[in-house]
UniProtKB/TrEMBL annotation:
InterPro entries linked to this entry: His_Pase_superF_clade-1, His_PPase_superfam, Phosphogly_mut1
Source taxonomy: Bacteria, Pseudomonadati, Pseudomonadota, Gammaproteobacteria, Thiotrichales
The protein's name in its UniProt record: phosphoglycerate mutase (2,3-diphosphoglycerate-dependent)
Similarity annotation: Belongs to the phosphoglycerate mutase family. BPG-dependent PGAM subfamily.
GO molecular function: hydrolase activity; phosphoglycerate mutase activity
Record-marked site positions (Transition state stabilizer): H151
Pfam families: His_Phos_1 (PF00300)
EC annotation from Swiss-Prot or TrEMBL: 5.4.2.11
């Protein structure tokens, strides 16, 4: 039974040069400090992983490519693991958005599932693609250990799904840059059994 479990590590990308702004469709490189932190944490030869899956965004894919090459692991880029598209909020910090869309932003902080950024992706569409990727990983990597390099809201949606949390609690989950969340999932004909093993670990 143990070999049928898929172990999935969700790695939040490091801090980015664009700063504390909404980055959904925005490609932005990691800061030098973030690169150093991630290389120190993951640079050692490690038996922990069998494959790497990444969002195609630069802030995720650059490190994923480096790590996969260093560890000689297969790498898959999955469009479904992109961050939500923030529309008119893209590339702007929350303080700036508060001056132009105060009501929408306040409602979004309370429950991102109920409000979409102007011109952005609906939360329903976002969640559907993320959970589609999650379901497929549980099947495609049965018995394996997969490192997934992705974004904060993607990680929140997956954790909320596993723990059956309400949408109102999504942003209560703190996702630090460079933090790793470990989950275990078993998927068979009867359904899915998943558990959170560790959250925010190095």
């Amino acid at each position: 039974m143990a070999n049928n479990f898929t172990h999935i590590g969700l790695l939040q990308h490091g801090a980015v040069e664009a700063g504390d702004v909404f980055c959904g469709e925005l490609d932005t490189p990691l800061t030098k400090a973030s690169w150093k932190q991630l290389k120190q944490a993951f640079g050692r030869a490690s038996p922990d992983w069998d494959a790497v899956v990444t969002s195609p965004r630069m802030q995720c894919a650059a490190f994923a490519e480096w790590f996969a090459q260093k560890q000689d692991l297969p790498l898959v880029r999955d469009e479904r693991l992109r961050e939500i598209h923030f529309g008119e909020w893209e590339g702007r910090n929350p303080q700036d958005v508060m001056t132009t869309h105060p009501e929408e932003l306040a409602q979004w902080w309370l429950n991102p599932a109920q409000v979409s950024p102007p011109g952005g992706e609906s939360f329903g569409d976002f969640r559907a693609r993320v959970l589609d990727a999650w379901t497929e990983m549980g099947r495609a990597y049965r018995g394996e250990r997969v490192l997934v390099v992705t974004h904060a809201l993607v990680i929140r949606v997956i954790i909320a799904h596993v723990l059956q949390m309400s949408d109102e609690r999504l942003l209560a989950l703190n996702i630090e840059y460079g933090a790793l969340t470990r989950l275990r999932v078993l998927r068979d004909r009867s359904g899915e059994w998943a558990s959170l093993l560790a959250h925010g670990c190095g």
